[in-house]
Amino acid sequence: MPLHADPAPRHVAVPRRDPAPSRLAYKLNRLWLRPAVRVTTRIGVPVFLVVLGLGAWLGDADRRAAIVGKYDQIRERIEHQPAFMVSLLKIEGASPEVDAAIRALAPVDLPASSFDIDLAAYRHQITRLDAVADARLVIRSGGTLEIAVTEREPVILWRTHAGIEMLDATGHRVASVVSRDVRADLPLIAGEGADRAVPEALSLLKAAGPLLPRIRGLQRMGERRWDIVLDREQRLMLPETDAVRALDRVLALDAAEDLLARDFTHLDLRNTDRPTIRLSEHALAQFRLISSAASETKP
Questions:
Q1: pLDDT tens figures, 211-225
Q2: Which residues contact residue 157 at a Cβ distance below 8 angstroms, ignoring those fewer than 6 apart?
Q3: Upstream peptide bond of 111 is cis (omega within 30 degrees of 0)
Q4: How far apart (Å, rounded) are the C-alpha atoms in residues 174 and 296?
């Protein structure tokens, strides 16, 4: 029986792989090209995982308390180092009374850390004192807190129903006095609202010149104008406006005609066009007597 050779093997066709990416791979690749996605993946996700881990770790109350306690210890150790300690309070420009008041207002007892002293709040408390116009606070090296005080200068006394107050040139209260004799060198004003017109009162006193020895004080009338109270129970009633000018006119008349030496009680200058004078009872009686005698001598 003849032998036949096997036929040659036939090649099986293998499908070729499509080089194009799949739709899902294409979309993922396009998505990765977006900057926001890359930043989120490279930075946002790690940060989120770290924060999530910290949040879980700090979720324990004991761990949080331990961290806070450690922070407080470190801060207190730093704040109370010798370089930050204040041990001396030095006050300049203050009277003994103001000095004692400032020391009483100190927010902490010395020695204390400079971190425990609120300079702005301390300065606010000092400047609220009536006698203090300004204050400058600075912590010097060596642990000294220096306070430079500018006190208000009393220039006038204001008599009120409650007593006598010393005022500065702006009308701000400085202090109280028990009697005028305590500061007899200061002029006196009185009346409701007189403290709000101190600059005008000082201008009148400056313009009074030779009349100053006779002035007993200035009285505010109706919170609108001034009366100058003189000795011998005399009073100059000044107008609401141009009071200094009206006073200058009185001084000129006095220099020319010796007006203020006459026997009167009130010199009314409220109407600058028509000043009037009110005679005393004695002067009025003498005037009537002279007028009666003059009328009898007429033919």
A1: 999 999 999 999 999
A2: 164, 165, 166, 167, 177, 180, 183, 186, 187, 188, 189
A3: yes
A4: 63
Confidence of residue 1 (pLDDT cuts 50, 70, 90): very low
pLDDT category of residue 52 using cuts at 50, 70 and 90:
confident
**119 SS3 class:** helix
The total of other beta-carbon atoms located within 10 Å of residue 72's CB is: 10
**Residue 111 and residue 167 in contact, taking contact as beta carbons nearer than 8 Å:** no
Nearest-angstrom CA–CA distance, 126 and 129: 6
Distance of CA 231 to the CA centre of its chain: 41
Domain 156-294 grouped into CATH 3.30.420.40: no
Contacts of 217 (CB under 8 A, 6+ apart): 159, 187, 188, 189, 190, 229
CATH of domain 82-151: 3.10.20.310
Token pair recorded at residue 115: 């971190």
The answer to which of 7-21, 24-38, 110-124 has the lowest mean pLDDT is 7-21
Q: What value does the mean pLDDT of the chain take? A: 86
pLDDT of residue 298: 56
Crossing angle of the two packed helices 61-79 and 45-58, in degrees rounded to 10: 90
Please state, for a pLDDT cut of 70, what percent of the chain lies above it: 87
Task: Give the pTM.
Answer: 0.69
Considering the chain, tell me which residue range(s) the CATH 3.10.20.310 domain(s) occupy.
82-151
